[in-house]
Design a protein that fits this description.
The complex is a heterodimer of chains A (about 550) and B (about 300). Chain A is of the alpha/beta class. Chain A is built from 16 helices and 17 strands. Chain A is about 35% helix and about 20% strand. In chain A, helix 10 links the parallel strand 12 and strand 13. The two termini of chain A are about 25 Å apart. Chain B is built from ten helices and ten strands. In chain B, helix 8 packs antiparallel against helix 9 and helix 8 runs parallel beside helix 10. In chain B, strands 1, 2, 3, 4, 5, 6, 7, 8, 9 and 10 form a ten-stranded mixed beta sheet that branches. At the A-B interface, helix 9 and helix 15 of A face helix 6 of B.
Chain lengths: ~550, ~300
């Protein structure tokens, strides 16, 4: 408790001179905690980018689902859209050191910060614009499995292209020392780059590292670069962190001023990137002014269709001292495919992120009646819940015995899941459970878990299933081969997936011995995987090294 | 200190129970021990599993029995894939009638590293000198060399730069499998080794390490000759004709394809091969036009 309080005091970038409606001075405000933290994030950015200056923030709130505007150029306009309501005003003075003397003429800098609305779950398809978007949306929701078949062919094409193309590298920075422009700061800090503060495996790990940096005695400075409502901004791991949720486009002079502000206020001992394009792009500049600061990045998933952080990482590899990867697949891609020096790539897994450790499964008795097949995960496009429903329909029609299904999760496709469940006539055999229920309970009832994702890094639910003694049938994507029995790896394409997964599940129903054989193979793989280096230990050692 | 590279030996066997144990004994008595020895039994029917059973308790040996005979190509693809899954940094592949000298692997690993250092680049494979049982060079397993084959010799390294080699004691680094995939199992037999090493050669030349020596226990010491076709071996030549035709056409050019056809026909004419057999080979050459398999890539497991 005292540790937290101390750290909250440490990273002060601004002082509050006055406020109304915000609630930062202890009085009741109109803002909730998420909004307050977003506002503090905006103030962090402007205070770091404008050392010594005084800012007056006019604080807006938008309708539900609208995204914040915190650091972009629009903040300098004192007009706003009709649907924005003013919910607060705040005056702060930057505590960032400056040698400049501001004259009264510089006066107050007025900024308008829009905190957006409450987060709303929406699939990317909901945001497709125009007639074409409407057509795509309609086809996607009318025939999701057929639409998915086309998507997978597109993935094949993109993957083939990337397989044969080496990623060009940014030229290295050859300086050993940057020309000193400022006095050295004394507060040790780690600069983190994150995608956003929302639910996700990469984000969960990123927040853990933020906490580890704080526990090591350094101030975490957390930059995010994606538009988001940042529903995780209140997470306890972020206590004491200086959060800067960037919204774009920021003005170029503010960007360098902001990073200069960070470097002059904090003794940045290292940079740790977790899928943050903005910070990746600024690494060459950062390395040219501070080549002494070590840079590492953590990579989680190999994917190209929607950009791909791994390739950005490869492009910037000359600026990165260590690539931390969580799976053997990523290591092999970097070293084998892209020719990154093996000593620069560190494989350290998150095998124990959600389980206390992998043990030999205790639940190996014969299959139950009815045989329970489950899906555990977010209802998102990536996880393809509609494919699980298709598999359920197939199994219901062809299973050699009674079978029931559990879908445990929630997400942007929740409405589609319920509608298709009814359309496929599965309402009496398929139960949908919300994330308020414990996953352990679902796994305890489960005879086989299905992972139907079209891409994954390494599914944490596979670890949980193994620990619970549940065999997993999965698409052969990402590093799933590290955890799943060979026979239970199914093609990514939807129709072959349904065909093979149904066949394997039918085999499990008729042959408990075969089910046990697969489960044993899964456990052996999990055990071998668990012996790989651990990401937490590696990161803790890394941060301790940065403190020396 | 980095950990030493791990090596998985892969031996593919089919109905050679009298030789495969000698191969394994040679592999297991290496001065540089392989971390794994994977024996791929291509569904042998001569009692090979019973003979191999005595190795089941050996801590380094893993027996992989296939349901059907997939040919040397399929066996090597399977074994290499499994070695890759185990996390091997190198795979050392050989036939079931290849007896490596005690220091063959050690010299191969060291020779590969020295060649890489001398060349200043990663080399995608290293192969041994293959001798016949009488100590002479084994004619079937002589690698193709690059135009600058003596470059390493000039730098004081006992190695020769190569364009391709046969699967008789070849060391393949993990990165090469990641980048180029596995041998084409669809080739079944013949030219799978040439195709694979030519494919790897897109990255850089290979190296034949002159200090690494193995003995290939073939019945007769004779290279591939289409004039030798008879009724009992025609099936093998059909694979060879088709596979090389496919490679020359789809991975080189039409001219290379025509030259292969011409060479094949000339060989059969000079060997006075009967017309029905020549016709079968011609058909195999024609099959190569449409036959164009794509490589599979190994899975990263550990």
């Amino acid at each position: 408790m005292t540790e937290k309080a101390d750290i909250v005091k440490l990273p002060k970038t601004f002082e509050l001179l006055d406020e109304s409606g915000i609630g930062l001075d202890g009085a009741d405000g109109l803002l909730n905690e998420r909004e307050r933290r977003l506002l503090v994030g905006a103030a962090n950015f402007h205070a770091l980018a404008g050392p010594g200056r005084t800012f007056r923030f006019t604080v807006l709130r938008g309708p539900s689902g609208t995204l914040p505007s915190l650091t972009d150029e629009a903040c300098h306009q004192i007009g706003w859209a009709d649907d924005r309501e003013v919910v607060g005003s705040m005056v702060v003075r930057s505590l960032v050191h400056t040698t400049a003397k501001f004259s009264p003429a510089d006066g107050l800098v007025d900024l308008v910060v829009d905190l957006g609305g409450e987060p709303r779950l929406a699939s990317a398809y909901d945001q497709l614009p125009g007639l074409l978007g409407k057509a795509r949306r309609t086809v996607r929701f009318m025939a999701p499995v057929q639409f998915d078949a086309l998507r997978q062919f597109r993935t094949d094409v993109v993957e083939r292209r990337h397989r044969t193309r080496p990623v060009p590298r940014k030229a290295p920075v050859r300086l050993a020392r940057g020309a000193a422009a400022r006095r050295p700061a004394t507060k040790p800090a780690v600069l983190f780059g994150l995608h956003w503060l929302e639910l996700g495996g990469a984000e969960r790990w990123a927040l853990e590292t933020v906490q580890m940096a704080r526990e090591a005695g350094m101030v975490p400075i957390v930059i995010t670069d994606r538009p988001s409502s940042h529903s995780w901004i209140e997470r306890p791991e972020l206590e004491g962190a200086v959060i800067v949720p960037l919204t774009h486009p920021t003005s170029p002079e503010q960007e360098s001023a902001f990073l200069n502000g960070v470097l002059s206020t904090y003794d940045v001992r290292g940079v740790h990137l977790h899928h943050c394009t903005w910070l990746y792009e600024r690494l060459p500049w950062l390395k040219s002014i501070r080549p002494d600061i070590p840079v590492v990045d953590s990579l989680h998933i190999l994917e190209w269709r929607t950009g791909g952080f791994v390739d950005i990482s490869v492009r910037m590899s000359n600026m990165i001292d260590k690539h931390h990867v969580i799976s053997p697949q990523l290591r092999d891609y970097l070293v084998g495919r892209q020719g990154v020096e093996p000593e620069k790539v560190e494989l350290a897994t998150l095998a124990t992120l959600t389980t206390a450790g992998i043990e030999r499964p205790g639940r190996v008795e014969g299959a139950a009646d009815p045989f329970t097949v489950s899906f555990v995960g977010r209802f998102t496009q990536q996880k393809r819940p509609y494919l699980f429903l298709q598999l359920a329909a197939e199994l219901r029609a062809t299973a050699p015995g009674r079978v029931r299904f559990v879908m445990h999760g929630d997400g942007e496709l929740a409405g589609e899941v319920m509608a298709r469940r009814d359309r496929l006539g599965l309402a009496d055999v398929l139960e949908v459970r919300g994330p308020d229920q414990p996953v352990a309970r679902t796994l305890a009832e489960t005879d086989a878990l299905v992972i139907s994702s079209d891409n994954e890094g390494l599914t944490l639910t596979s670890f949980e299933a193994t620990a619970a003694g549940v065999p997993v049938v999965s698409t052969d994507v990402g590093s799933q081969a590290s955890l799943i029995a060979d026979d239970l790896l199914c093609p990514r394409h939807p129709f072959p997936f349904v065909r093979l997964a149904a066949e394997r599940l039918r085999t499990m129903m008729t042959s408990p011995d075969q089910r046990k054989t697969w489960l044993d193979e899964q456990a052996v793989k999990a055990e071998a995987f668990a012996k790989l280096p651990d990401a937490r230990t590696w990161t803790r050692d890394l941060y301790e090294g940065w403190l020396k | 200190m980095s950990t030493p590279a791990s090596v998985a030996a892969v031996v593919v066997t089919y109905n050679r129970k009298d030789k495969v144990t000698k191969v394994l004994d040679h592999v297991l008595s290496q001065t540089r021990k392989p971390d794994w020895v994977l024996v791929v039994d291509n569904a042998s029917t001569d009692g090979t599993p019973e003979v191999l059973a005595r190795y089941t308790e050996h801590e380094h040996v893993r027996l992989l029995r296939l349901e059907e005979n997939t040919g040397g190509a399929g066996g090597f693809a399977h074994g290499m894939s499994k070695a890759y899954e185990l996390g091997a940094d190198f795979v050392w592949i050989m036939d079931d009638d290849c007896y490596p000298n005690d220091d063959a692997l050690e010299e191969l690993v060291n020779g590969h590293a020295k060649a890489e250092e001398a060349m200043g680049m990663q080399l995608p494979y290293a192969c041994s000198v293959v001798k016949w049982t009488d100590g002479d060079i084994c004619e079937m397993n002589n690698p193709g060399t690059t135009w600058d084959w003596g470059r390493l010799l000039a730098k004081g390294v006992d190695g020769v730069l190569t364009t391709s080699c046969s699967f008789v004691s070849v060391l393949v680094p993990r990165w090469a499998m990641t980048r180029f995939g596995l041998p084409l199992k669809e080739y079944f037999i013949w030219f799978d080794d040439a195709e694979y090493t030519l494919r790897l050669g897109k990255a850089a030349p290979g190296v034949q390490c002159l200090r690494s020596v193995v003995v290939h226990d073939l019945g007769v010491n004779r290279g591939v000759n289409f004039g030798d076709i008879n009724h009992s071996n025609i099936w093998k030549f059909e694979y060879g004709a088709r596979n090389e035709a496919s490679y020359r056409l789809h991975h080189e050019d039409f001219g290379a394809f025509l030259r292969h056809v011409q060479r094949t026909l000339r060989g059969m004419r000079e060997g006075r091969v009967s017309w029905p057999l020549r016709l079968r080979v011609l058909k195999a050459l024609a099959r190569g036009i449409r036959f164009n398999p794509k490589p599979e890539f190994p899975r990263s497991v550990l």
